[in-house]
Amino acid sequence: MTSYPNQSRSTVAKFFNAASLLALSLGLMLTLGCDDSDPRTGTVSGFVSLDDQPLGSGNILLLSESGASGGAELAADGTYTLSCTPGKYLVAVMPIAVEVGPDGKPTDPLAAANVVEIPMHYQDVGTSEIAIEVVAGDNDFDISLDSKSKR
Question: What superkingdom does the record give (predicted)?
Fold first, then answer.
C-alpha cells in the first residue's frame, strides 16, 4: 500500500472518490453532449455513386466557412452517416488513404487493391462544387460523381 505523508487514509480515500466522481460526471456530460438527438446536431445520411455505381470505399468531408466539419468513411455499399452542427457546408469525397512502407509498397495490399480512383476536383471542398445545408435532425444527401466530368 502506498503511503502519503501527513495525510490519513480517509483523506486520501475521499480525494480519490471525489476524483472518480468528477471523471464519471465529465464522461457522462461528454457522452450525452454527443447524442444525435441534441437539437444542435444534424445527422446526414446518404449514398455516394461514381458513374451510377456505388462508391464502395472512400471518405466524405463537410467543411463550413466557420471551420465546423463532419466526416465519415463510406460503407462498401456507398452509404454514409455523419453528425455535424447545422449550417452550410462544402463537400469533398476522397479515396481512402493507403499507407506505404519505406520500400514504397502498400503496407496493406488488400486495402490498396480496393482504392477507387476519384477525380481530383471532387477531393477538395474548394473545387468539388458540391454543397449542402444541414438542419437540426435528420438530413438525406445523395452524391452522384462523374469520372468524365472535367471542372
Answer: Bacteria
